[in-house]
Amino acid sequence: MERTDKACQYHEQGCNCCQSVLAAFSDVTGIGEAESLRIGGGFGNGAGTGELCGAIAGAVMVLGMAAPSGKDNPAAVKREASALSKEFQRRFQEKFGALRCRELLPLRYAPDDATPAAKRLGLSENQHCRIMIVTAAEIAGEMLSERGLV
User: Fold this and answer.
1) pTM, 2 dp
2) Cβ proximity of 31 and 65 under 8 Å
């Protein structure tokens, strides 16, 4: 099963956006499902404040955990994780025009060619958060693949 499908299923089961993305990548992060759900639990609804979309937060966590790291050089790890985060956010914003939950929620996106996973899953504009979730998982997966991390 594709990670985008898994992320969508987690949301259907009641998980928030961050939990859904993070748990869908458990095989990449090495964090089990239960731990992923606990870690991501407080990041729904823009961490409860409407700020950074939880789907983005989950994807940034995935990318940071999947990036090669070296305990002997934390500054290099920080730079790499920051670069991945910025690139992810650029791609997400390019598709949706915003990063903040409170700005994304009032907008209604219909899946199209810019969101192929959401289109393939047959999501509708009434499933707004799921479109964000599967697209975040899709972008994270592409980035990991491009860098040979999966």
Assistant:
1) 0.94
2) yes
